[in-house]
């Protein structure tokens, strides 16, 4: 558990027409990790039975989406951005230009919350809660920075390479986050309007046994979910 004082902001996000959201609150720990380092954060995740799946570098915007099959933790490594939680995009077939226009325009649902994300911030996102990252700075192209498909970190077989060592070699530039999910959880991608089955699935997922960063501490999800 980090030694600095823990601050946590809780956001209860009700269902919308497109997004199930969750009875559990979104948790935002601002500046929880003052010197975020991928391999150190991976060690925290592993200790607390969460599995590191990816490091992404974010571009100007992305589609709003949620995961119905897994709770998620995102820790900011570098840069700044705005993340909108809890509201879906209302133009599901939009182009990249449409996405850029919808960031501050009318092409998203009312409601939700927008949070300014900075290096060191941690978000624990319940299954069903949508999120959309935009206005990422420094500006860069969206990219998966870790080997694999984003569903776990691939390491070369037979070379004895550990995930932490792979993460140390990742070049971080732009706005980057590292993501993890409870061990055994696999994330899906839902952009809204999938219906009752996805809502039931998201709402029916059990509470994780520990917080990805704070472990069993009451300041984390163990005391807040």
Automatic annotation (TrEMBL):
InterPro entries: Cupin_1, RmlC-like_jellyroll, RmlC_Cupin_sf, YjiB-like. Residues 55-145 form the Cupin type-1 domain. Coiled coil: none annotated. It comes from Salinomyces thailandicus. CDD domains: cupin_YjlB-like. Gene3D superfamilies: Jelly Rolls. This is Cupin type-1 domain-containing protein. Pfam families: Cupin_1. The lineage of its organism: Eukaryota, Fungi, Dikarya, Ascomycota, Pezizomycotina.
């Amino acid at each position: 558990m980090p030694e600095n004082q823990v601050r946590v902001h809780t956001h209860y996000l009700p269902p919308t027409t497109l997004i199930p959201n969750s009875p559990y609150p979104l948790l935002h720990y601002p500046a929880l990790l003052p010197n975020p380092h991928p391999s150190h954060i991976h060690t925290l995740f592993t200790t607390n039975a969460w599995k590191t799946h990816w490091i992404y570098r974010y571009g100007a915007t992305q589609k709003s989406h949620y995961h119905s099959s897994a709770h998620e933790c995102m820790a900011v490594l570098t840069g700044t951005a705005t993340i909108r939680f809890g509201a879906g995009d209302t133009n599901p077939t939009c182009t990249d230009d449409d996405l850029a226009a919808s960031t501050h325009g009318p092409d998203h649902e009312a409601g939700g919350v927008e949070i300014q994300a900075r290096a060191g911030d941690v978000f624990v996102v319940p299954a069903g809660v949508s999120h959309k990252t935009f206005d990422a700075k420094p500006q860069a192209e969206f990219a998966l920075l870790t080997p694999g498909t984003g569903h776990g970190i691939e390491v070369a077989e037979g070379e004895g390479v550990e995930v932490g060592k792979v993460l140390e070699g990742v070049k971080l530039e732009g706005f980057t986050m590292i993501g993890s999910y409870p061990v055994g959880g696999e994330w899906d991608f839902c952009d809204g309007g999938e219906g009752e089955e996805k809502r039931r699935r998201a709402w029916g997922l059990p509470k994780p046994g520990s917080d990805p960063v704070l472990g069993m501490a009451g300041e984390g999800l163990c005391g807040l979910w």
